């Protein structure tokens, strides 16, 4: 799930770069790319598998 969210952030960052849209600092393509990288790293680290996991007894 986190990988899909990261892909959305990467797509938004790419569109902002491709259209040369000027945005605020926190909404810049670089910031969105870093958020996407952080989400991708969390996904690869296994964080998304623990988010929706149910405890089996």
Could you please describe the fold and organization of this structure?
The protein is an all-alpha fold and 57 residues long. It has three helices and no strands. α1 packs antiparallel against α2. The protein is elongated and about 45 Å long. The model has no long low-confidence stretch (mean pLDDT 79).
Short characterization:
The protein is mostly helical and 57 residues long. It has helices at residues 2-18, 29-44, 47-51.
Helix-strand blueprint:
Layout: H1 2-18, H2 29-44, H3 47-51
Helix pairs in contact: 1-2
Contiguous helical run count:
3
Radius of gyration, taken over Cα atoms and rounded to an integer in Å: 14 Å
Write down the overall mean pLDDT.
Answer: 79
Strand content range: under 5%
Order of helices and strands: HHH
The secondary-structure class comes to mainly alpha
Keywords:
57 residues, single chain, 3 helices, elongated, mainly alpha, 67% helix
